[in-house]
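To: structure subgroup
Subject: Chain for Friday's discussion

All,

I'm putting the inputs and outputs inline so they're searchable in the archive.
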Amino acid sequence: MSQVDRAAPDLSVVVPAYQAAEFIQARLGALCDFLEASGLRYEVIAVDDGSHDDTAERIRALARPQLRLLQRPQNGGKFAALASGMAESRGACCLFTDADVPYHLSALPQMVHLVLERGFHLVIGDRTLPGSSYGEHLGPLRALATRLFTLFIRLFVTGGVPDTQCGIKAFRGDVARNLFPLLRERGFAGDVELLYIALKHNLTLRRLPARLAYQGRSSVRPLRDGLSMLRAVLAIPGRYRAGAYASPELEALGREDYAQPETESA
């Protein structure tokens, strides 16, 4: 494992937000309260992705010393916001989650442990694993679109990663700061792209059950977003063949000696 900057926090949490004024203050407040009690040295980077409501003002009003606000001048998409936040991160472990902070916060210390102590390059939530609880009820159209999209991704892009879209993922800091600049997708397909790049560079990955704790309104439109994502995903292997994801740094990380740890219960 690479040497860690002792002045850096253990954990950087990057939270992209767009038109989130209704809930962002309460959800970020709960996140900061939990991290304060956890004993981790942390920072939270909230990225306002060109909101037209009071999202930025609500974040500023929290006035937490470990909370930073980045403002993008216009809406660029979830992964445009995440790339901006990861570029500013200092953590030995970098994690992102959705603006409504939907998953049980107890997963965060475990993800940090798996990255910093157990040596995984990535740790991702996976809603298909035993022990997951995901209370969202999907309508027939969205359920069908989700199943078809997942099947396509597993067959043609990410192989053994059945849930690419879970909204909580953690990375070793050096992995995050070398991986996110390579991303070309700015919307929901960015999850698929980052996992594709990680797998192609032989980075080590651990999946954990995902337990939903808070359910906000979904912004996903099954038909339009599903078709858009399929078109985006189809472009990813071609970019790889063209050398768009070449990274000497990630290649070197993928060659690190790695002893597979014993299985842990989540």
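Points worth raising on Friday:
The first helix runs from residue 24 to 38.
The two ends are 23 Å apart (CA to CA).

D.
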